[in-house]
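Minutes, project check-in
Item: structure for the 161-residue chain
Input as provided by the requester:
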Amino acid sequence: MPGRVIFWIPKAILSASISQTRTRSDSLSILIIFVTEFEFQDLVEKTIKEIPAKLREKIQNVVFTVEPDARVPQGNEIKISRGNFLLGLYQGVPLTRRGIHYSLALPDKITFFKKNIEKISDNDPAKIAKNLKAVVLHEIAHYFGFSEAEIRKMEKAKNPG
């Protein structure tokens, strides 16, 4: 169905309901903010809805999932250099590789790794939203058939420096 966003959230992370907590270290008070799984899911859905309608309508038979973090097999599917985090993962057959006999296929899957996105965003909700948008666009570009090198080149051209 064009424009339909389907989410799957593992049961293990649904129990997390803490949205923020305060910690004290000597006389220093630090506010640590956690984005709940539902807030993160809403943010993903909002970001997808912001994609121009002409592109969004072409996204069909895709399941968007939120995982707390990347499991080892997922991390091994692609090469991740030391010190970097897997933020998202596209699994499926890109549109450019689908032939006339492509039918009755399981949905493609785009997974977003919440904890890794939060880590690179310093748990700042505004940075999480900005970085999540970049990850959503990056993974959807894979769905449309762009290679990692092509996407990196486009990202670099958009944000030089």
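Outcome recorded: The longest helix spans residues 125-143.
No further action items on this chain.
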